[in-house]
Structures are given as structure tokens and as C-alpha cells.
Amino acid sequence: MNKVQHKHGKHYFTQGGINHPQVNEMIKERYPEGIDFCYTDPPWGTGNLNYWKTMNNKANPINMTEQLDQEQLEVIVADTICDNVINYAFIVYGIREAESLMKKFKAKPNVKDVQYIKKKYQSGSKWYENCIIIVTLNNAEVRDFSELNGQNGIKSLKTVCEMFKGKFRSCLEMFVGIGYYAKVLDKYGFDIIGNELNAARLEKAIAKLPMKFHNE
């Protein structure tokens, strides 16, 4: 399988399965000493995960589809973050699935703390509760992130960006989607390294970035 990588100014993206070696290869190549923090929203819950598989199987023009179950996906998320992120990881996740993912992080030797923060998300005209799992890694300070409690949409990401601007430079986004997080991270000046399985969705994400980053 050929590598599919995209450079856009200071940002680097891979397109393909999150379990493909190119993801870790790119991270190690660009940030051999590790990425400062991670902020990402993996698919969670049976319905969400099945929709993600179906959509990507239909949309990908190359053989980079992925048939992972929730357990396999959580292992990849925990391994990728713990192997490559230096300070903190913020994983937007479902409340019913949170305990399983948190256990995987707590079993890692370089994890100092795992926090559960309630969050809200909008689906149609209704608001629902989900969460952010916050992982403190390596020698990072264990700090109180309770100000994220109840924040909705991308407000929590903006709050995190305000905390980290001027302190950190790089952010891992494992599931880029159509680029809502990437747009915010770019606005705050962070270098993004990310992956998206769906080629069409990655194109939409790139289109949200400033024009000066296009076609480089």
C-alpha cells in the first residue's frame, strides 16, 4: 500500500487507515521527540462506528478502508497517543464507552493521570452528553481541567488552545474529519499532524485552512 501524505505549510496529514504504519512513520519523522499534545474525536458507539465504516468504504477511491471494532480502535488510540505524545491528550468520547478507553490508558506506564470531564454535543436540534477523557503523560503537570465541564461544540478545544498557546507548538489530530478542529488549531498557531481515512473528507478539511497553505 502506497503512502498518501499531504503537506500544507506547517501541517502534515496522512490519508488512510489509522492502523496503517504510515501514521506512526510520519509522526516519528516529523516529531522524533514527540508531539506536545493531542486533541481528537474518534468514532465511538456501535452506531457511530458502523456509520464511519460504511461511509469510508463507499467514499475511498483506494484500498484504504478499515474494519475495526471498538476494542481494536481503542487499542490503536491509546498506543498511538502514549507512544508519540509528550504532555496531554484530550479524547472526545461517548459516556458509555469511556470506562473501557480509560482503563487502557491507566494500564500504560507513562500515563500519570486520567480524568473524565462531562461535555455536550449537538445532533440536529437536540443536545446530548458525552465526555472528554484527559490523559496526562510523562513528566507533564497533573492539573485541574474542570473548566472544560459542560462546554459544547468546539468551545472546549478553544479553551485548551488558550491554555497552551505560547507553551506548546504541535498537536496530533488522529481523526481529522472535515476539519473543524484543524481550523481552530491553525487559528491558534499550532502545527497539526493528523490522519483521515476518508479522502473526500480530508480534502474538505484542507479547504478550511488558509489559502497560503494550499498546493505546497
User: What's the main sheet like?
Assistant: 8 strands, mixed
Number of helices: 7
| CATH C-level class | Alpha Beta
> How many structural units, i.e. domains?
1
In percent terms, what proportion of residues is strand?
Answer: 25-35%
Measure the end-to-end span. 24 Å
Total beta strand runs: 8
How does this model look, in words?
A hairpin with a 2-residue loop joins strand 1 and strand 2 (11-15). The protein has a single domain (36-157, 165-208), classed as 3-Layer(aba) Sandwich (Rossmann fold). It has an 8-stranded mixed beta sheet with strand order 1-2-8-7-3-4-6-5, with helices on both faces. Helix 3 runs parallel beside helix 4 (98-106). The two termini are 24 Å apart. It has helices at residues 21-30, 46-59, 70-84, 98-106, 155-164, 180-187, 199-207, and strands at residues 5-8, 11-15, 35-40, 85-93, 111-123, 126-137, 170-173, 191-196. It contains 7 helices and 8 strands, in the order E-E-H-E-H-H-E-H-E-E-H-E-H-E-H. Mean pLDDT is 87; it is low at 61-65. The chain is α/β, with parallel strands linked by helices and 216 residues long.
